[in-house]
Amino acid sequence: MKEYKYTEKKDTRSGFGAGLLELGRTNPNVVALCADLVGSLKMGDFIKENPERFFQIGIAEANMMGIAAGLTIGGKIPFTGTFANFSTGRVYDQIRQSIAYSGKNVKICASHAGLTLGEDGATHQILEDIGMMKMLPHMTVINPCDYNQTKAATIAIADYEGPVYLRFGRPVIPIFTDPNQKFEIGKAWMVNEGTDVSIFATGHMVWKAILAGHILAEKGISAEIINIHTIKPLDEEAILKSVAKTKCVVSAEEHNRLGGLGDSIAQVLVKNTPLPMEYVAVNDSFGESGTPEELMEKYGLSENDIVDAAQRAISRKQA
Amino acid sequence: MKVNPHNKSIDELKEVAAQVRRDIVRMVHAVNSGHPGGSLGCTDYFVSLYFKVMNYSTDFKMNGEGEDLFFLSNGHISPVFYSTLARAGFFDPKELATFRKLNSRLQGHPATEEGLPGIRVASGSLGQGLSVAIGAAQAKKLNKDNSLVYVLMGDGELQEGQVWEATMYAGGKKVDNLIATIDRNGQQIDGSTKEVMPLGDLRAKFEAFGWHVMEANGNSFETLLPALDQAKAATGKGKPVMILMDTEMGYGVDFMMGSHKWHGVAPNDEQLEIALQQLAVNEAADY
Ligand SMILES: Cc1ncc(C[n+]2csc(CCOP(=O)(O)OP(=O)(O)O)c2C)c(N)n1
Ligand SMILES: [Mg+2]
């Protein structure tokens, strides 16, 4: 099992803030919009340097999505910022009609996704956003795994023409990816090569998959770990190449089991090569208040849950 | 700086309007679906914008740099939008015959997906167009482009909350390169706006949100054109401009007027004949 050392922990939303700041310096068409959550979205540095390119919308997310769509018509590249819940469910129809169906170049940047938002509880912990966004034609869906990758993804999506949903989170987690990485939309990242089981993880679950990989190695199991940072378009080639070797699959995501990364992978398997697969995901429920770690434990999203799922998947392989 | 490519006289505008009204009733009749009521009521407004007031090019470019832009928020009145665009020169009026049919660029509600020239955003789900227009207006400001942005909304549409989010924004942030218009026909699907959900004192409401508010008769070029001129003159003064435009749903076809019943119903063969008699104009110009 490959060693991933880290010296620092940071939140992925700060990676977004850093990426946006850099875009402010390099791309004059980039503009930012926020619905009264500048601090939470780490947009302050961009705003300080580019006050004329920032639009404070107030607590009016539907209006924010419409204004963003309109800004693209004049050649701007708008990055909207609010919590993941208010970036998706709150404004689904606005995104659907004014952005996705209209093919508008809006970057919907969503923080505090999933359970790890913590104490605010289920009203704010959206676990359905990946599903809603991936179902929209034209939409690209990205969920990076650490600070560096989020920063790189933020920068990369400005150069891509089309609507993007960029999902990140609140808790501080290890920084283990290359600070100089070039982010390629739709290209899975090989975290660890292995032979016994393929673990496809996204977002905060990638670090947990690495922890699980070490536990599995101690048990003599060789896990292949792949970071699916882009859920749509899905890197089917990387998935099929991996499962051709391992013959069983675990998906890991901080999202509802229904409609997330796991379902996208299951579709690829069913169509090409039906194989045993286990989900590590929230089992069709809302979240609740608690610390991020407590919640990940209670809702079955710990490294041990990945280990158990891997062993179940392996045991289901045909002899 | 662009100019209006037609710049027609009032008599000519009346002729164009009759032609557009003929197109509308023929289009909805042909597919036995679509929305004639609001389309007929707003015909004079559309014809005024595209044949006199707005400065634009029919060589359509999405970014509309240096051009006045128009957004239709109440997308269900697509027939009047499509006919006006065709008659103004964005595409061949013959294409109006494909309205609402399979593989057409003229979708039931306006869309960009099929690339119809003149459409900049999809609409149909009500309440979104004002926000989009504000965004386009803000982009013009950033680009130092001093052309204008127009948007039309229905009066029933004002019941959508997003409209008021956008209204607060445009007033509060002084989006003064924007001219919004409400099609105040007093009708919506289930009845009059009074019955369904009273709109109250719209002038007072928009003024309270920091808008410059005007009123106009939308079914008379003699009063609508000067109002649109005054609206233009009111831009650039720190306030978005609102025209509360009184229209009659179904205007121009007597049996369609005065009720909400023709909001979204197509005329039958007999009714079409009567309507076309009332909209007499050069038949040879029909699509
Ligand atoms: C969000 C949304 N809700 C409901 C509808 C269905 N609908 C289409 S038109 C309409 C009435 C609109 O009234 P108004 O804006 O006054 O237009 P008019 O009937 O005068 O043309 C309704 C309810 C819709 N298109 N969008
Ligand atoms: Mg009405």
TrEMBL record, chain A:
InterPro entries documented for this protein: PDH/Transketolase, THDP-binding, Transketo_C/PFOR_II, Transketolase-like_Pyr-bd, Transketolase_C
Pfam families assigned to the protein according to its UniProt record, in alphabetical order: Transket_pyr, Transketolase_C
Domain Transketolase-like pyrimidine-binding as annotated: residue spans: 10-175
Residues that span the membrane, as ranges: none
Reported cofactor(s): thiamine diphosphate
Protein family: Belongs to the transketolase family.
Protein name (Swiss-Prot/TrEMBL): Transketolase family protein
Native source organism of the sequence: Pontibacter diazotrophicus
Lineage: Bacteria, Pseudomonadati, Bacteroidota, Cytophagia, Cytophagales
